[in-house]
Design a protein that fits this description.
single chain; seven-stranded antiparallel β-sheet; alpha+beta
Length: about 210
């Protein structure tokens, strides 16, 4: 009888956990569209990132620039790697619809699912370790025509003294891929299941010791 009660309790906890996960998922992801992007330089340096926005309010072309409240982007993150795939640094230029990067330049055509035009994403406060990826269009727009890159895109960083250095260059464009909505749902379910799994173990322990 004790074992039957234990199994019943576990079943109830599991059912409730999955039901709650499914209940909250639609509201969290139904209007969210997430994309991943990447860029690789001729020297092997790599940039990877992601961004998302609300499809109910965003136009077909999303354009963001500078500091402050964004027009459409909800989040934008970026990571920089050396040719050995070792992480150099990671930043989140846009958090909860607010940009914290002064030189932000980001343009995305949702119908073509392509990044185009001026591009400058990362962090540059003239501090050691700051890293960013930009292109000539962004430099010219900012008035730095005398700093036009040897290639279309440049992977930039600041050394220990805060001096700017270009680590890699390339004419490669920034590639974009859409994150399947199902994977977002699975991720939420996995997190929820993990939490309820821990609760299950505690429930089993408590029932066995009772």
């Amino acid at each position: 009888m004790k074992h039957l009660f234990t199994k019943t309790a576990i079943s109830i906890v599991t059912t409730i956990g999955l039901a709650l996960a499914i209940a909250i998922t639609p509201n969290d992801v139904v209007h969210a569209t997430e994309f991943k992007f990447n860029w690789k330089g001729n020297g092997g340096y790599l940039v990877q990132g992601s961004f998302n926005y609300d499809t109910t309010t965003a136009p077909s072309v999303i354009s963001e620039a500078g500091l402050g409240v964004t027009k459409n982007l909800q989040s934008l993150s970026i990571s920089f790697f050396n040719p050995f795939s070792t992480l150099i640094n990671s930043f989140t230029p846009v958090v909860n619809g607010v940009s914290n990067y002064s030189f932000l330049r980001f343009n995305f055509d949702s119908t073509k699912e392509q990044i185009f035009g001026q591009f400058d994403v990362g962090k540059d406060d003239n501090l050691p370790g700051d890293t960013w990826l930009n292109n000539n269009l962004a430099l010219i727009n900012e008035g730095f025509s005398d700093e036009v890159l040897g290639k279309e895109f440049g992977f930039n960083s600041r050394d220990a003294a805060g001096t700017k250095q270009i680590l890699d260059l390339s004419n490669n464009s920034v590639q974009v891929s859409k994150v399947p909505e199902g994977s977002i749902i699975i991720g939420l379910l996995a997190v929820s299941s993990l939490g309820f799994s821990i609760k299950q173990k505690k429930a089993i322990s408590a029932l066995r010791n009772s």
